[in-house]
Design a protein that fits this description.
- There is one protein chain.
- With 361 residues, the chain is mainly α.
- The protein is built from 17 helices and no strands.
- It has a domain of 158 residues.
Length: 361
């Protein structure tokens, strides 16, 4: 994500051609970032959710998940604000545009809703997540083709990209639900992740989707005549990229089986994705103040400058995560001191004003 956003923002247009092998490889790899991000979010959230009470009404992670979902959505909106523009009373549709965090937060809340549905219908949560993920993929061409202009702009932003939204829940919910499907399945078959047959199965499935998903969808259409299938195989992005997700997951699981113990810094980086995303967004795009790296070097760097810059960018965030506990401790202590000072000053002012008022009376 870090290098993808940095390179895409900084690389000069003259070098954005698939004729350059390195750029072609980079563009292909970058396209996997969002599907993997959404998929792993669903996998991890559902796996941890099911480690608690199977009754959603008694599961502590349900309430935490709902809070987390709304918190992530709020962060998504907050990162789109520009304080100087707000002070100047300048409004932009970008303030309510939908981005990756909005979709992630809403997907978490939606998976909790499916958890309740599973409990009340007694249908397997694994099955519900799998069906929901495939249904989102299936209906995505139809949703994309519909006119949503009758909706208030705030809600229309969630349905199409006409007004600045970058990601919309459909089709990205599909990756999250399918990730949740795998997470729920692993919860019921925890030993599978430590058997070589599982990553091999994922690898074969991923390669099958990469090379033959178009053929499978066409054959399925010839057999069923389902009206949305042409929209899928004519723009075979979703299942094609799902195949890449399975390939990457198979590699990660295989590496975990080989090395057994993952370095603490790696796991910590994985647990701080929200902090990394938020900070990188502000530094790179100048979110709140309109002053970021993009405002200085947007689409102006040569490849070697971009490579060095991306490496430094990533290194900076590795160090940030390594010392993030110290940073938070320093931040929290400073905030507390400033708040106490502000309260003391306010209390003294109020007391002074009260004494003056009492004396006059």
């Amino acid at each position: 994500m870090l290098q993808g956003h940095f390179v895409d923002t900084m690389l000069h247009p003259d070098f954005r051609s698939k004729e350059y092998t390195l750029y072609y490889i980079w563009e292909f790899m970058r396209g996997m970032t969002a599907p993997i991000f959404f998929f792993t979010t669903g996998l991890i959230f559902v796996f941890l959710l099911l480690k608690q009470n199977p009754n959603p009404y008694k599961n502590k992670r349900v309430v935490k998940g709902i809070r987390r979902g709304f918190y992530i959505i709020a962060i998504g909106y907050l990162l789109h604000l520009n304080f100087f523009a707000l002070l100047a009373m300048v409004y932009s549709n970008w303030y309510i545009a939908v981005d990756v965090l909005h979709c992630i937060g809403l997907a978490i809340i939606a998976m909790i809703g499916l958890f309740f549905l599973s409990w009340h219908t007694k249908i397997s949560f694994v099955a519900i997540l799998g069906i929901a993920g495939l249904a989102v993929f299936y209906f995505s061409p139809q949703v994309k083709a519909m006119d949503w202009s009758h909706l208030p702009l705030f809600f229309e932003q969630y349905m199409d990209k006409k007004h600045g939204s970058i990601f919309t829940p459909i089709p990205w919910f599909g990756f999250t639900f399918l990730g949740g499907f795998l997470g729920a399945w692993l919860h019921h078959h925890p030993k599978a992740a430590f058997q070589w047959s599982f990553p091999i199965f994922l690898l074969i499935t991923g390669l099958l989707l990469h090379y033959h998903s178009w053929t499978i969808l066409v054959a399925l259409y010839n057999w069923t005549a389902l009206e949305n299938l042409p929209g899928l195989f004519n723009n075979n992005y979703l299942f094609w990229r799902l195949g890449h997700v399975f390939v990457v997951m198979s590699i990660i699981i295989a590496l975990c089986n080989i090395f057994q113990k993952i370095p603490n810094l790696i796991t910590k980086i994985g647990s701080e994705t929200l902090a990394i995303y938020s900070v990188h967004y502000i530094i790179l795009y100048g979110s709140w103040f309109g002053i970021g790296l993009a405002q200085i070097w947007r689409k102006s760097l040569h490849p070697y400058e971009v490579i060095i810059g991306a490496a430094l960018f990533i290194t900076a965030f590795v160090f940030m995560v390594k010392y993030i506990d110290d940073i938070r401790s320093f931040r929290d202590n400073k905030v507390k001191v400033k708040l106490l000072q502000a309260w003391k000053w306010t209390k003294e002012r109020l007391m002074t004003q009260y004494l003056k008022w009492s004396t006059k009376k």
